[in-house]
Specification:
alpha/beta, globular, 9 strands, hydrolase, AB_hydrolase_1, 294 residues
């Protein structure tokens, strides 16, 4: 499964590394939005779950991954600018669906609020509008580690919190990745954390009111940081919203164990493209405010 790789120019501002996985049997294209500190490599399992049922597009933010060498990093990117990049990529690849992970949900929701005409449905995974006590503690500890330049602390922090349910091998990869980022990536991370801690919860919900397409919010049962009960707060502003909980799973959903990966795949494909998801027979989607138990 080899992708078509391209580095795209976004209106002369950013150069974006993209990977386009085509499928002869697919009639729809989905674009995946990374979480904080993540790269295209973070979506390896998600890619396996979605392809070949869908054409899949992965990309790295200008400051991260394989986009990093192509950009000067003179300034920090807001979520709004990252949403602008996503909207441009949606147009370029004629994408029909969006799937985001973790804090990539901020970018995806900001883009969806612009009502891109091509997008038919979206999946927002491991995200909630609320910064609860557990997330507040995680962000504050992260900000402290960034201020001190403590790379070891940052590497352990993610594994001890959001990644606590990951297999040991994945934790090793996580630590190596997070503890060896470039200085500008830590600066970008610090900027995002400061923005999150200062942002207004009500405004995040208000912006979501502009989203008219069907949106599936999917969270892990054990995820105390972006909790399923907090995600349900999107039920009112996103009028065409659906919700799913993956049992016995934390923040990283399809990366944590085989059953979680299989169940996540089933519910996502059933929501996006039920005709091409025979494995999802027996799963039922529930409208606004209801949960699916997997």
């Amino acid at each position: 499964m080899k992708p078509e790789i391209a580095v795209l120019d976004i209106q002369g501002q950013y150069r974006i590394h993209t990977e386009h996985y085509r499928s002869e049997s697919a009639h729809r294209t989905i674009i995946l939005v990374n979480g904080s500190m993540s790269t295209t490599a973070s979506f390896a399992q998600t890619l396996k779950n979605l392809h070949p049922a869908l054409n899949v597009v992965l990309y790295d933010q200008p400051y991260a991954g394989q986009s990093k060498p192509h950009n000067p990093h003179h300034s920090l990117l807001t979520n709004e600018l990252e949403a602008h990049v996503l909207l441009e990529l949606i147009e370029h690849f004629n994408a029909h669906y969006v799937l985001s992970f973790s804090w990539g949900g901020l970018v995806a929701l900001a883009a969806l609020a612009e009502q891109p005409q091509r997008i038919e449905k979206a999946v927002i995974s491991s995200f909630s509008p609320a910064i609860n006590t557990a997330m507040q503690d995680y962000l504050e500890r992260g900000r402290h580690g960034l201020a001190r330049g403590d790379r070891t602390l940052l590497g352990h922090l993610v594994n001890d919190t959001l990644g606590k349910h990951l297999p040991h091998l994945f934790k090793r990869f996580n630590f190596r990745h997070i503890s060896t980022l470039a200085d500008h990536e830590y600066a970008q991370m610090h900027f995002h954390i400061d923005h999150l801690l200062a942002s207004d919860y009500a405004s995040r919900l208000k912006a979501a009111e502009r989203i008219a397409i069907p949106v599936l919010f999917i969270n892990g049962e054990w995820d105390e940081y972006t909790a399923a009960k907090d995600a349900r707060q999107f039920a009112h502003p996103v009028t065409n919203s659906q919700f799913a909980i993956v049992d016995n799973t934390g923040h990283f959903l399809d990366m944590e164990h085989t059953a979680a990966s299989r169940h996540t795949k089933s519910v996502v494909l059933d929501f996006l493209n039920p005709v091409q998801s025979p494995s999802s027979a027996g799963l039922t989607m529930t409208p606004s405010g209801e949960h699916i138990r997997l």
